[in-house]
Sequence to fold (63 residues):
Amino acid sequence: MGRIRQALIKRTAMELIKRFKDKFTTDFETNKKVLEEVAYVSTKRLRNRLAGYITHKMRQLSR
Fold:
């Protein structure tokens, strides 16, 4: 079974996707760099979790 992402991660990621959909891609490394540009993320762990969830959602949207 997988892990459940926190509501904070989901809510923040969806808000960022709505605002900056054209900047995010299906690549995790690219999304990490975009996150540093468009939002202040306090910790590396939070940035990585947001980038992972955004990557997951962008892959779903590209289908």
